[in-house]
Design brief:
Strand content: 5-15%
Radius of gyration: 17 Å
Shape: globular
Distance between the termini: 30 Å
Largest sheet: 7 strands, mixed
Number of strands: 7
Strand order of the largest sheet: 1-3-2-4-5-6-7
Amino acid sequence: MLHHYTYLNENTTKWVSFVHGAGGSSSIWFRQIRAFKKEFNVLVLDLRGHGNSKPILKDTFNEIYTFDVITDDIIEVLEHLKIKKSHFIGISLGTILIRNLAEKRQDLVESMVMGGAILKLNVRSQILMRLGSIFKSVVPYMLLYKLFAFIIMPKKNHKESRILFANEAKKLYRKEFIRWFKLTAEINPLLRLFRAKDIQIPTLYVMGAQDHLFLPSIRRVVKEHVQSSLYVVENCGHVVNVEQPENFNIKAIEFLKAVPS
């Protein structure tokens, strides 16, 4: 089972579950925990191969990860903890996993807060993924990761996010990095489904104004999906919860408390 930990709040039955992105770990939420545990029960987990969720023996022989397999990891933790329903907060690739979880088990999802959400890969990001796929076996993976981080988060005020994710990515084994990278092969049809289907779950997208790769597609989707709203954080890049934590926390908590029970 994925490594996870909980913060229990005796004054509420409501849960908030945090899902990090590829190359990160549960540690990226350290600026959220204090604020959220005052209002909710909190679940924080490390995705497989990340943080303290070390690869297990059966994964050594399983070369292929899929979004469904990784989503099932999260569902396993929820069922183990007997969490019948939760709000979910994700960042970057974690938002894809949350949306996929909502597709598979809508009964578990009370609402979604999607930070630095990915709903479409533009031409630039698709070229980036293809180049990565070509060179992933010959170029040191940390060099690839740092290149991706710089393209996604290029500005001076994004530096802390780049460093944080690079430090976490160093803890990944090379094989693990390649398994996660191969997920990009199935990403386009999945994102196409998510854009086309209004799943009717209250959703708040929190996007940095400087998130140049992913913000334009979110603007379009919010216009079409009835229960979706968008909050744009000025002077901020992709990793909104790290760059502007107080802003992120206030807006997300305000949204979650307003979701009808």
